Amino acid sequence: MEEAFQKALRELKRHGVLLQTDARLPNVCQSVAGAPVRGSWWAHPKSHEIFRVNCALADHPDVIVVKLISAKLTYVERALWSSVAAIGRPREAWQLQRLSPDARKLLKEVDRAPVETHRELAKPASELEKLLLVYSEQFHTQAGSHARRLDTWDRWLDRAVVVTVQQSPDHARHSLEQLVESLNQQFSGNGRLPWQH
Known about the structure:
By secondary structure, this protein is of the alpha+beta class. It folds into two domains: 1-77, no CATH class; 90-164, Arc Repressor Mutant, subunit A (Orthogonal Bundle). The protein has nine helices and six strands; from the N terminus they run αβααββαααβαββαα. It has helices at residues 2-15, 28-33, 47-59, 81-88, 93-96, 101-112, 122-130, 153-159, 169-187, and strands at residues 17-19, 63-69, 72-77, 115-116, 135-140, 146-151. The strands form two sheets. The protein has a three-stranded antiparallel beta sheet. A hairpin with a 5-residue loop joins strand 5 (135-140) and strand 6. Helix 1 (2-15) crosses helix 3 (47-59) and helix 4 (81-88) packs across helix 9 (169-187). The longest helix is centred in the last third of the chain and has 19 residues, at 169-187. It is globular and about 45 Å long.
């Protein structure tokens, strides 16, 4: 597993981002399997190794996981964290205008304090994640199951003391657009960012 993890980490550092799965763009499934994975990666013979590499990347101190490209889980290296936070913090019209009432309610709860989601909050939580309105992280409960905690970008920035946001949302969006456009051209992909409808 260590060799597969190191290979995926090198790809992440080379590209700045690495999707969990995608038909064309650089992704963990293809990195581990050695070829594109069609359909659910859970059915692939290397699914256990793919799962372990996904977990190891998510736990790496230089990686955050956000639904950045095509609303898919995307591993983002530290150099791009400030861009993602710069986009998520201001809560612009493109982020707020189509939110469901449940997602708006959940966002207000997150503003007050971090929220550990449960099954009933899965859909509104996913809405908030896809629009970069919250920082989301997976964690293990005391019972051993996976859970998700939503927090504001400001509180996350306070914890991630090495990250400073010194760019405007416009500049951050432009830099990520250039990155994704370059990846799309290089890999004949069709990746889209949350504000690109």
